[in-house]
Amino acid sequence: MSSYTKPKPSFDLASPSPAYTLNSGHKMPCVAYGTFRSQPGEIGAAIAEALKAGYRHFDLAHVYGNEKEIGVAFKKAFDEGAVKREELFITGKLWNSDHDVEIVPQACAHSLRNLQLDYFDLYLIHFPIAWKHTGLATPSWGASELGDTPLIDTWRAMEALVEKGVCKSIGVSNWPMMLMHDLVTQAKIQPACNQIELHAYYQRESLVNYCLANDICVTAHTPLGGGAANADTWNTPSLLKDPAIIGIGTAHNKSPAQVLLRFLLQLGVVVLPKSVKPHRMAENIDVFDFSLTDEEMAKIKTLDKYVSYKTNPNPLGSFLGGKDAYCAEGTDIFD
Length: 335
What we know:
Blueprint lengths: L18 E3 L5 E3 L3 E2 L8 H11 L3 E3 L7 H13 L9 E6 L8 H13 L4 E6 L25 H14 L2 E7 L3 H10 L6 E4 L8 H9 L3 E4 L6 H8 L8 H10 L3 H11 L3 E2 L6 H8 L8 H8 L34
Parallel strand pairs: 3-4, 4-5, 5-6, 6-7, 7-8, 8-9, 9-10
Antiparallel strand pairs: 1-2
Helix pairs in contact: 1-2, 1-10, 2-3, 8-9
């Protein structure tokens, strides 16, 4: 096999609190707590449990519809002295319908007000697509229409947020290789992170290695392949039931989820598991007391199917009912 660029992991998993040092100089904990698919009425308690379990990195997004409840949970934790704001790393995201240059700072401020925060540690462009603005409180989903703001103009507005001090670092989410390189060649402030679907069935080695080689953190927002939710909804294969993963877990007395998270961490990828169940939260962050062997890493690498096992990285159905739906399923923005 010919040689190729394969950067080494840039964080020490043996340290007491493993963290990735972003190209902005700020440190980001290597395991985050995700808030996607967390329903109103349950996310507040889940945030409190996640803090108890030891999470200090929280991944949020305006379109998830739960910012206000999360903000209440954070404020309660701060007021009770459970944690200080500066001890947390909080990521927010700019939704597709808020890409207009004049809207970007308003959208960021709107999310910060919802969360009762003064700044984001990291703020990401959620998808590489601009939709028509539909109001800060009503992010577009359904009959969505394409907007006319170029991605680089949106990025310039993101850069201004750093200069203003309301975002310590900025980055992107769900960006493919070609758009990452286009951004890298034009950005004044380089993207600190690309948050993507990434798991043992969808390993995306070229994109991961490109980002790491350019000092861009890679965060896996679907490190377990979507888990039971995707298996039930979309009839996709479940990584948690893969015999190879189960076997490796048995050898280490660890769960399949812990094996999958450790696999990505050893590749130098920050992981973003999601659960509202306290025992799962604790399990997902308990991944620093064992290591996968080279043979086990190689075995997991053979599982790669290079097929997306999650619908979230493509807002396909959001176009249904509108003039910009270009196929029966909506519009595939990555076609």
